Amino acid sequence: METIKINDLACNDLPWKISYDPNRCTLCGSCIAACTFDAIGPKMERRRMIFTDSETPEPKTRFSAQPIIAQRNVIKNFCRGCGVCERVCPNSAISASRNPDSRFNVVYPAATGSGPKRGGRNNLEVKERTLDTLRVGRISQMTDPSLDAQRHTFDCLAPLGRVLPSKALPFQQSAEGKLIQDSQTPPVHWIYPVIIGDMSIGALSWRMWEAIAMAVAYLNEECGLPVRMCSGEGGMPVRLLKSKYLKYMILQIASGHFGWNRIIQAMPDMVEDPAGVLIKIGQGAKPGDGGLLMAAKVAEHIQAIRGVPRTDLLSPPNHQGLYSIEESVQKMFLSFNAAFKFRVPVAIKVAASATSVSVFNNLVRDPYNIVGGFFLDGIDGGTGAAHDISLDHSGHPSVSKLRDCYLAAVAQGRQGQIPLWAAGGLGKNGNLAADAFKMMCLGANGVFTGKLILQLAGCLGNDLGRCNACNTGLCPAGITTQEPVLAKRLDPERVAENIVNYFLGMDMELRKLMAPIGNSALPIGRSDCLISTDKAVADRLQVQYVC
Amino acid sequence: MCRIGALKSRHYMHPSKALLLMQSQQKGHDNSGFAMVMQDLGGIFEDYKHLPTLSLACTDEGLKIAEDLLHAKGFRRVHQWVPETNPQPGLDIEAMPNYVFETFDYPKEYQDASDKEKGELLTDTRLELRAAMEEDEKGFAYSFWPDVITLKEIGDPRAIGTYFNLWEPNEDFTAKVITAQCRQNTNYAIVRYAAHPFFLQGYTALANGENTFYQKNKEFQSSLHRGYIGFESDSQCFLYSLHYVHKELGWPLPYYKHVVTPLPFEDLVKREDKAQLLAMRQSLAHLEINGPNTIIGVLPDNTMFTCCDAKKLRPVVVGRDEDTVAISSEVCGINEVLPDRNWEVDIYPNEREIVVIDDNLEVKRWKQ
What we know:
The structure holds two protein chains of two kinds. Chain A is of the alpha/beta class. Chain A has helices at 30-34, 84-88, 104-112, 206-221, 238-241, 260-266, 300-306, 325-339, 356-364, 388-393, 399-411, 432-441, 451-456, 484-487, 492-514, 535-541, and strands at residues 16-20, 40-51, 60-71, 94-98, 117-119, 134-136, 158-161, 171-173, 179-181, 188-191, 194-196, 229-230, 249-253, 276-280, 292-293, 313-314, 346-351, 374-377, 385-387, 420-423, 446-449, 530-532, 544-545. In chain A, helix 4 (206-221) packs across helix 15 and helix 12 (432-441) packs across helix 15 (492-514). The model of chain A has no long low-confidence stretch (mean pLDDT 91). By secondary structure, chain B is α+β, with helices and mostly antiparallel strands. Chain B has one domain: 4-Layer Sandwich (Glutamine Phosphoribosylpyrophosphate, subunit 1, domain 1), CATH 3.60.20. Helix content of chain B is 27%, strand content 28%. Chain B contains ten helices and 16 strands. In chain B, strands 7-2-8-1-14-13 form a six-stranded antiparallel sheet, with helices on one face. In chain B, helix 1 (16-23) packs across helix 10 (331-337), helix 2 (60-73) runs antiparallel to helix 3 and helix 6 packs across helix 7. The model of chain B has no long low-confidence stretch (mean pLDDT 94). Classes of the chains: A alpha/beta, B alpha+beta. Chain B: This is Glutamate synthase.
């Protein structure tokens, strides 16, 4: 008997196992060709066959070598469960199934000396979200009639920019009794309350990025929805910077400062101002860790945009040169405000954490009136790549922190002065309108979302650990890869169409929720509309408890 | 649905006229209460227009607390009127033991103070009175302001009228501006403070309808001014917004409408003054109101106005003759008090309009 080498890797150590039926397989090779991870490959198997060649049974044994498809037990090529093999198999001969007895978290670090990394999804804690315990419970009835979602007009716009307290507005009264403005106020843009979250052009394939940009332009110019898109760290193509479409883009500068060189160089040639500048201090899905763009994804055009060689690119968790809130305000807000001559709102994005309310409180008291928005991001979101340990074991959900920030503003009578935008797993269940509505009732002026956009594009991953290979550059859907062959799997026009359709549907659904509570404007801070069947959630968020 | 009404006249009117205005709209009352604010007073108060009058409903203990407090602050009583009540058996009224309308002279150190300083003193005093009498409902201080009287009571409006002898006109108890509501609030527990009209520093507001933005209005207003308290009714917010926009910010009245029911963005951006309107909408987003309502308001100079929600979901009509202008939820009310007027010129204000009646009784319609 062969000696067992117990420490050798076996397929049943891996998180996913391939189920294969050789009787159905025609060996067409589609699955092997389609598997971007090389997790399966051809293999010869020795088969024993019993047969008889006489009229009375005289069983004989024959051995033959037969080609089959088999899972590879190589740690680098572990199956991600994306299911592309099953999709392409014409005969339903192959599929991937979850291996509940996986030893992956043990064998991977033991073999590689480093922790596993993956595309960012919240896998460890898959349970009912806080938002799902909330319902819109105040239904207008006879005293305050509900509105007709199809007939009435609704104002669905949210501010991005520093809103002055009313007593600070520079108004003078004219002789005719009209108010006239006698000095400049900080720029505020009224935009659609759902922003497409910051995903960088390095993280996404250029086709995916182009698809989002196309969808945003279409939503603005054909559908009348002023949706904005955030660039993510890493800059954007110079051609776009110099185009009229820049006005739909929020430029992000993050801790790696990637891409800003090009942005600054393009400034003299810009024909439009960007919709805003977002300074990323922290990210919710991997707080305390940086975005991890593996060298595998740093294609030539990414190198050009970011001005870096082909190497792993880590956006540090925060701006390493800034050690205080005052310093960050002074150094960054002022400089980026000034760069665009105070015409562009500059907002800040932080990770939901125990300290986010302190940061918000500090900013709300900012005497320079230059903080144009507070973006709060929580653990349930995230599409980028990071270490498993960060994704699974650090971070904070955003709902209660958003509520804390809003109530902190209420306590100071400063609600709305720094618009609150929140994200982190919104639209995770496919219904972004409901999530956005609830977040607004809890105090958000608007929300931003990224992961849902990937799902609209056909992302195969899920929150139960399927796929999550955004970091490898091998995205089987062509969404988070820079490999031309893989990117070609994505049809940008179809993706754009999906996004546009989704937004149009969501817009109607938002009205469908505003109508029954009798609101023709966004329900910011209307926590009285929400109820929770969970006492702890109700108490924590200060909404009505029902049972 | 609440019924509200307001009268403004060249001549002094007795509150029987307000009761008459409201009575024909009786089907809209739930007989839970009656309340009114009289401004620009005549009769026995005419000589004391420059001095503040305290409107109080209280127990004996409450009265003592109030008088001690006012005395301690240096107020000197110069006039008192206690309405003769008519406690017949069978009247539907939950009366308080005492109803007191007392006019005071300012403390000595305030004799030369500015109107603003005097106003702040009166506001602080009323808030202190309210707080001092709050426990066990020892008393209710509705208003403490020159030339203003407030009466609020729980019960059937007709019975309340009978109890206070308000059905019989006389020359003693009159005013040129009377606002009234024949109903308690329905959204919250019944407390006397909750009945419209609401009053603060010369501003009066009453409303027919609901305010679905109550929560955000309240959360915001609570930190804007010490006088913005109570919130016993969702429509109290309308008064505070009026006071804030007109008095605290000093903006002309037309902007009140822009704050409470801002223009839709698509209309707003077409306006010449879009920068100002946008800035207002941004900064005062939490004063916006939603939900069906009609507001009637009175300013310190006795200008009266009415406006509606942005979708015109609640009724209101303005009618007038030579000497009187009446605003009412329903036209039947005006028919009662101004039967001989020209009905053709009645105004049914729309969702983007403020109808303003100035002190010369000139009626203006302002488009938002």
